Amino acid sequence: MAELAAAEGPPRGRTPSPGPGGSPPGAARPPSASKWVRLNVGGTYFVSTRQTLCREPKSFLCRLCCQDGPELGSDKDETGAYLIDRDPTYFGPILNYLRHGKLIINKELAEEGVLEEAEFYNIASLVRLVKERIRDNENRTSQGPVKHVYRVLQCQEEELTQMVSTMSDGWKFEQLISIGSSYNYGNEDQAEFLCVVSRELNNSTNGIVKEPSEKAKV
């Protein structure tokens, strides 16, 4: 009789003790309860939290794996990672933006590539940031590099202070070179210097460099 009772299972009124986390032993944990999400983007794995991926509620990533009953159907690989057929090189800036809200693009990455991915994942705030970055870079490129025109002025030691203080607008001091003493008045040698000054070429009118004013000459 004892063997028969053991075969029939536990006594009536008793249920199996729950395992860790409150679930019965052997029970599968609901996918939505997992904090971490594994993504397979073009063959490269990324791991992030559901909270991070849900920063943009209307984004592709949120609809894929954060909503109950996701609108988007997606296959998973043998590890359970969501399969996304996109370039993994440009996914890093996308995921980092969701993590900390900053746009960081490595020098070897094209901003247009990040923009393409931001539009695909439907992250509107990131799309605006990348477009602003591209527009700012285009404006700097169109202006071209700043060019300078240089002048070398010769003066004596006692004239240095006056020359620098009365230099005309747009000119700035670059370098002072001592060339020794060429004159002797009484018992005092007068040291001479070459003073290098410059100003931006863009400050001139119609790209024509004008000669320095009298204040820039000695």
From TrEMBL:
GO molecular function: cullin family protein binding
Gene3D superfamilies assigned: 3.30.70.2000, 6.10.140.750, Potassium Channel Kv1.1, Chain A (3.30.710.10)
Region (Disordered): 1-33
Positions of the BTB domain: 35-138
GO cellular component term of the entry, any: Cul3-RING ubiquitin ligase complex
Protein name: KCTD2 protein
PANTHER family: BTB_POZ DOMAIN-CONTAINING PROTEIN KCTD2, POTASSIUM CHANNEL TETRAMERISATION DOMAIN CONTAINING PROTEIN
One Pfam family from the record: BTB_2
GO biological process: proteasome-mediated ubiquitin-dependent protein catabolic process; protein homooligomerization
SMART domains: BTB
